């Protein structure tokens, strides 16, 4: 206790938040399939300090962590509402598309204090939900770190949130987010329900925020919280790119057909989208765009009718203003082996990941492991074969 009292206020705040989150999560009797609860690493000291009850609970949970160790695609997103989605209701409601900003970070884009006009070189924007404190924490401490990189490149990070749909599942969520925002100054919260089909609202509100509160940012990475991003590689790709030109790079999905299978997470009925193919869009956890493109998109998207799948919706906005998204090898990360601490799974080669930009569907410990392995000063890889094409080989044992 004495030691704790001697810690800095900052650290105390973080610890307090963690304790509160842990308690809240423990208070729930059932845990969602998302790994948020079990993988809060800082909960460990807490369970040591606290009652035996919370201790035994955390043990039970570490078992369940082992059980579902296989990463799932949807890990980072709020799940779609399980009863069949009311598409007709969505059609009726979709003109209601302006929601209040409840928590803002007005200083985020003024490097060197308010009044300064120096904007960040790159803004990292991460989609998150209120309950996923652990995922935000690992991003903050690994690839989403704010600060200055070589050549004076400055990076700022924000997390994009809506209001949790189920308040009983996370009581005091508003107080918690207020504390979190106070501590880390990286929360943007809007007054719409944070559901899978409302991710499109998150997209439009974020673009409007960039247009009004971060208009001079040079580049933006926007992605999920369950990804690993090789920020150094992205910066290298951006070198020589024009922030005032159009740029939109990612894992571009071309000529995708709307899914008409009702059981799919991405099911779209014909009355909602009658067209044959979707416009090209970026999928797979993250993409990079220039500040110029983001500002153009913010007004383009206002003219596009809301569509419940956010990736596709953004593709529609791009199409409207005639921007061709470009595909990049480094984002094509589907079906590659993920890092594992298990000694018998020797598939993980940090040098292989070093060539990629975005690896998705990772869990908190995997992100942590990946970042530390890649930033190990002892890591030595052979030289890159090419500086521009980020080659990567499919290993023999494809996992998907
Ligand atoms: C909200 O969360 C609580 C606690 O996890 C759960 O018991 C309840 O069924 C949830 N309500 C809805 C509408 O999902
Ligand atoms: C989106 O958020 C609004 C405002 O909270 C809510 O009325 C609506 O039901 C949500 N839509 C979906 C599809 O979840
Ligand atoms: C973006 O910002 C400009 C300049 O402040 C403003 O004129 C424009 O209306 C804004 N666009 C949107 C979509 O808010
Ligand atoms: C690797 O690159 C460095 C500098 O780019 C060069 O000096 C070195 O010879 C290269 N090593 C190999 C094995 O190609």
TrEMBL record:
Keyword Transmembrane helix: yes
Keyword Manganese in annotation: no
Basic residues bias spans: 56-68
Main localization (coarse): Golgi
EC number(s) reported in the record: 2.4.1.-
Biased composition regions of type Low complexity, renumbered to the chain: 45-55
Region (Disordered): 32-84
Membrane topology: Single-pass type II membrane protein
Keyword terms, alphabetized: Glycosyltransferase, Golgi apparatus, Membrane, Signal, Signal-anchor, Transferase, Transmembrane, Transmembrane helix
Protein name: Hexosyltransferase
Lineage: Eukaryota, Metazoa, Chordata, Craniata, Vertebrata
